[in-house]
Amino acid sequence: MQQTIKLKKGLDIKLRGLPERVLPKCPPPLSYAIKPTDFHGLTPKMLLEAGSAVKAGTPIFCDKYNPEILFASPVSGTLQAVNRGERRAILEAVITPDGKNESKPFTPPDLAKASRSEVAEFMLAAGVWPFLVQRPYGVFANPQVTPKAIFISGFDTAPLAADTDYLVNGEGAPFQKGVDALKRLTAGKVHLSLCAGYPANNTFERAKGVEVHRFSGPHPAGNVGVQIHHIDPINKGDVVWTIAPQHVVALGKLFADGVYDVSKVVALVGPEVKKPRYYRMVAGASLSGLAEFINDGGEHKRVISGNVLTGAKVDINGYLGFYDNEVTVIPEGDCYETLGWLMPRFKKLSMSRSYFSWLTPNRQYSLNTNLNGGQRAFVVTGQYERVLPMDILPVYLIKAIMAGDVERMEKLGIYEVVEEDLALCEFVCTSKVKVQQLLRKGIDLMRAEVG
Amino acid sequence: MKAIRNLFDNIRPDFEKGGRLHFLHSTFEAFESLLFVPKTVTTGGCHVRDAIDLKRTMTVVITALMPALLFGIWNVGFQHYLSINHEVDFWSIFLYGLGKVLPMLAVSYIVGLGIEFAAAQMRGHEVNEGFLVSGMLIPMVMPPDVPLWMLALATAFAVIIGKEVFGGTGMNIFNPALLARAFVFFSYPSHISGDAIWISGLSGGAGVIDGFSGATPLAKAVAGHLPFSAMEVEKMFWGFIPGSIGETSTAAILLGAALLILTGVGSLRIMLAVAAGGYLTGLLFNLIGANAYMNIPAYQHLVMGGFAFGAVFMATDPVTASQTKSGKWIYGFLIGVMAIMIRALNPAYPEGMMLAILFMNAFAPLIDHCVVQVNIAKRLKRAKGKF
Asked: What is the average per-residue pLDDT within A300-325?
């Protein structure tokens, strides 16, 4: 029995609208999209023109600077349109499904015999390379680099996060196949982190060839970045990769059956959802079919692909993100609140004990998107440290980023964090500093200056 | 409230860009956000935010100051009537004190907030709530008879030179309220030192009973009136002694400290460290015992003068204190050490708290720098260990 890594710092934000463990059918989406904005550091270059017929796994665009990294259509159908934004940047490539959901056939190499480069080349060709996310920086992996290890987080502690055990339930065989493939890509180990509180799903517990670690503690204990910090921290020059469990499963299906299958179980959650439940969806599916499950009064809701801390705001006619396992719907907060800062505010959550939520730790809240105050310079200290279970000084890191001091960012540990790891710092901030946005700015600067 | 909301919505266009009152937009925003939490929603990053904001934080501090302020108001009256040997009822005492303290509060807020609003306007920022606390602290660290023009000047100095030139609240190096006190202390020493100024009306001399001394316990200690009797120490703890308006009652200050600690707004770490630093230094001096002041039992230092007030409300100012966890221990401890050292070793200054805190304010960034360097060194060492 391995030791449990106990984390104390952090905060579990309890929101209303936890999903029930049922998997009803949802209406088939009328369109799909693959969005370059889901992938940090990508400069997309279209490979197909609008009107082309595609199958699941047909590459639609590639990275301009790494043309071997392909981004594939999630389903079969027709590439309907390429929507562009400012300066003609590609926002989404929209695919109209033909209903057959055929995958482009792939011939997987034999994992027992194939060399590392054969495995990597096959994954690149099949468009599954973007499953692999590189640390530092949280960008898609560089195929020329052999990572020192690969990390998988087998649980998610974010607010209203989908239950990872439920997502991979019954996918033991493809998960194992996926792990076998990952083992060929790294010289080191494949690490799997599980929650110490309860036995994980058999898919995880029976996985072979992985190094299992157990974590306990509040969010962000389930963040892979926090886990890496405690298992084998990233130092300057280190490269590790991370991959989400559902992508390990998809990878396994590719190596077992030669199909590109990015379908996954997704939770529809939040206080504005009538009956929060799980649905089987394909990455990039239009969310419009879910509209009927959401409370009426559309304009005062925010639909988020992902969780409330790190997800992306999408329209109800928008699309499910590539890496997201949940769609969260919360009320908008665009209303004035009379003397709010003076009121007891029993319905609002605060880590500070100047409100009363600390007296009711198990209460579930229906938080809205109001900023609850104005932006200020840093005044209160010690807040960020309470929600970051890493040996990093978050305020000093953020200040180094504000100053654009690359050397100092490096010294203060920017290689170890991505936005999701500091998301709680942003949540608790009295001065309402946009921590995640700043951190990405810092990471982009690092990539430009250091590479 | 609806009518006020409508009023704000109606006059808003005048304050927006291009409006005829645009030069007052920060003022408009300050008043509006005081009455109504803005309808701003999150964009990018976290979609939900903690309910805490700076207004709430500052409200907690102001609430925590209330016991000390109310007691201070009463004590101003109490000391005054004591000096002229009049026995009057509670309300007369309180009203006399109110008559002294209220104008001081008004001057401090009008001058300070006036400058804050103007500075926010010039920068195009929102008005920061920091001065709501500073404006209350400034009169509380002054003697009751300080002239109002002097208070106005000191406030202006503290806000402009102490804060705005650095970029406003959050950027300042020194605690603004203590800076105001230091300004009076060094510019007009006769108004903030000696025996006569700690009791309202005493320096005027009208009606004062013969031989009445307004000396604070600190001054008595310097003069060698030692040791304090148990009753004197008790008086010091409850605060029935002359002194700056807010500092006398350790009991009232502890009430405020309890609220700050309970809500987590004030740093318990710093308060404990200051007390520990002061107490241990007191003990050390007891061992040396070279002068009368050194022989004061260590615990008595904690209830004398401005020690408790400084530890609870001044040293804990998050902007000017150390910001790292271990830095806070060092910073607080050294404040305690310095304060008692100045008291016992420097005959010119019977009180050391103000100078100790200002001095450590200057050193807080250095302490933090060392703590950050330790973190950096650990990370470097970890990286080297790999190869």
From this structure: 93
Contact B302, B281 (CB under 8 A): no
Instruction: Quote the pTM value.
Output: 0.93
The string of DSSP codes covering A41-97 is: T--EEE-S-TT-EE-BT-EEEEESSSTT-EEE-SSSEEEEEEEE-GGG-EEEEEEEE
Between these two residues, B280 and B195, which has the higher pLDDT value?
B280
Q: Do B49 and A368 touch (CB under 8 A)?
A: no
Q: Measured between CB atoms, which of A342, A369, A396 is closest to B42?
A: A369
All domains in chain A, ordered by first residue: 4-14+114-257 (3.40.50), 32-105 (2.40.50), 371-451 (no CATH)
Please say whether the beta carbons of A77 and A124 come within 8 A. Answer: no
User: Looking at the predicted structure, is the pLDDT value of residue B151 above 90?
Assistant: yes
Task: Answer whether A426 sits within 8 Å of B324, measured CB to CB.
Answer: no
Selected for mutation to probe chain B from A324, A379, A431 (highest B CB count within 10 Å) is A379
Does A334 contact B41 at a Cβ distance shorter than 8 Å? yes
B323 — contact with chain A (CB < 8 Å)? yes
Residues 6+ apart with CB under 8 A from A200: A154, A155, A165, A194
The pLDDT tens digits of the residues spanning A361-413 come to: 899 999 999 999 888 889 998 999 999 999 999 999 999 999 999 999 999 99
Report the pLDDT value the prediction gives residue A310, as an integer from 0 to 100.
95
Gap from A127 CA to chain B (nearest CA, Å): 28
Residues 6+ apart with CB under 8 A from B362: B173, B174
Q: Which of residues 152-211 of A touch B (CB under 8 A)?
A: 159
Q: Does the structure show a pLDDT above 70 at A216? A: yes
How close A155 comes to chain B (CA, Å)? 20
- Predicted pLDDT of residue B347: 75
Distance, CA of A431 to CA of B170 (rounded, Å): 10
- Is ipTM over 0.90? yes
Any B CB within 8 A of A329 CB: no
CB contact under 8 Å between A350 and B38, yes or no, is no
CA A433 – CA A414 distance, rounded (Å): 18
Under 8 Å between Cβ of A36 and A61: yes
What pLDDT, on the 0 to 100 scale, is given for residue A424? Answer: 96
Contact residues for B234 (Cβ-Cβ < 8 A; gap 6+): none
pLDDT at B213: 75
